[in-house]
Amino acid sequence: MLGPFRWLRRRQLLRRPLPPEWLGYLDKRVPFFRELSPELRQRFLDKLKVFAWEKEFIGAGGFTITDEVRVVVAATAVQLVLFLDLSYYDRLREVIVYPGAFKLPDRTGAVLGEAKNWGTVILSWDSVLAGLRNPDDGHDTAAHEFAHVLDRADGAFDGTPKLRQYSHYREWASVMSEHFHGLQQGRRAERNVMDDYGSLNEAEFFAVATESFFEKPRQMKQKTPELYEEMKRFYGWDPAPGD
Fold first, then answer.
1. How many domains does the structure of the chain reveal?
2. Position 240 in a domain
3. Does residue 197 share a domain with residue 99?
4. Which of 88, 120, 205, 239 has its CA 20 to 30 A from that of 156?
5. Is 110 in the same domain as 135?
6. Integer Cα distance of 124 and 142 in angstroms
């Protein structure tokens, strides 16, 4: 439940006017923003303000956090919770942004993004922009890492976020398990929709499925309709209407 101090702080942030230049950043960098209806655009901007001003943004590797960076990264996070509550991000405290691929002490090789257990998301600015420039290729590092945050909101990286109703868990487990194992087995339907990285474990499967849900919704709806329906029920909207 939202604590009284956080609730008050968010009310204050919502009352602050949106800086006019933020709309320019969104129009320039965030294609899905231009497609929102006026009603959804206002909902999006309200959540964007809270996320952008509430979370701490930290530049790393010589990178400087500007308002444009803050707004664009926040937009990638808010897309996932447009029909969910911002409380899914309550455990997230800070977003660290590098200019490009980076190295971490506990990882071999360079990485483009990482969601840490203690409330930190680390992103490459280059990868954030690449995900937005190619909105239908199924690859979006920022969406992937913020999906991990949603997953972690109930206490564990296990591929099952806090669902809308208790009655949804049984069907979620059945459908996600079926398609996770389908991807592990190299089944054509899953491989046509999702990256093989999703076969690593259940948490990565949910994050990869999230990327595909937002970037390849029509393919997911056609090739793996049961998976699409579960993702739609959780996220609360249909990115592929009419198909």
1. 2
2. no
3. no
4. 239
5. yes
6. 9
Domain region containing 174? 166-235
* Single pTM value for the model: 0.94
Residues 6+ apart with CB under 8 A from 1: none
Q: What is the CA radius of gyration of the chain?
A: 17
For 6-54, how does the pLDDT look when each residue is reduced to its tens digit (9 = 90+)? Answer: 778 888 888 999 999 999 999 999 999 999 999 999 999 999 999 999 9
Tokens of 53: 């001003």
Same domain, yes or no, for 55 and 126?
Answer: yes
Question: Pairing state of beta strands 94-98 and 56-59?
Answer: parallel
pLDDT digits (tens, 9 = 90+) for 73-124: 999 999 999 999 999 999 999 999 999 999 988 788 899 999 998 899 999 9
Residue type, 200: L
- Per DSSP, the three-state class of 88 is helix
CB 122 within 8 A of CB 102: yes
Pair 89, 133 in one domain: yes
